[in-house]
Write a structure and sequence with these properties.
By secondary structure, this protein is α/β, with parallel strands linked by helices. The chain is built from four helices and five strands, in the order βαββαβαβα. The chain starts with a strand and ends with a helix.
Length: about 140
């Protein structure tokens, strides 16, 4: 089984989540490739059993342009896309918190709820990451 984790991170928070995902998937014996959006050639998503796509939310609930460009460059909607992201409720409150995660999950018709992390995944939020991974692993291993 192969998983691609593609993410965009300015502050490092989304990157931390991506690294947690990578470690956990590898512990399960899954081959993982990491791709930082905007750096290098976009991998061929068709080569993977699952795409984990990570983003932050900014500008009052918007998805960053780099993530939109990545989606366009992939050129199609893979079946197994799991969305994760980071946000900050102090900038707009719950109404726009991690809206990029929600928008991407709807766009891809993701079978998993989006993983939303307030700023950094450290501390008690690491539990949310692990629970989300369990749900993704349960379904992905069935389809691989």
């Amino acid at each position: 089984m192969r998983i691609l984790i593609a993410y965009l991170s300015y502050s490092g928070n989304t990157e931390e989540v991506a690294e947690l995902l990578e470690r956990r998937f590898q512990q399960e014996g899954i081959s993982v490739d990491m791709y930082e959006i905007g750096f290098g050639i976009v991998p061929n998503v068709r080569d993977y059993d699952c795409l984990c796509l990570g983003t932050f939310t900014w500008d009052y609930g918007r998805t960053p342009d780099e993530v939109k460009d990545f989606v366009a460059e992939v050129g199609y909607k893979p079946d197994n896309v799991a969305i994760f992201g980071t946000g900050d409720t102090q900038f707009g409150g719950d109404a726009i918190y991690c809206q990029a995660v929600d928008k991407l999950a709807r766009f891809y018709h993701s079978k998993w709820p989006g993983l939303k992390i307030e700023q950094s995944p450290r501390g008690h939020q690491e539990r949310y990451v692990n629970e989300w991974i369990e749900g993704v692993l349960e379904d992905v291993t069935v389809f691989a």
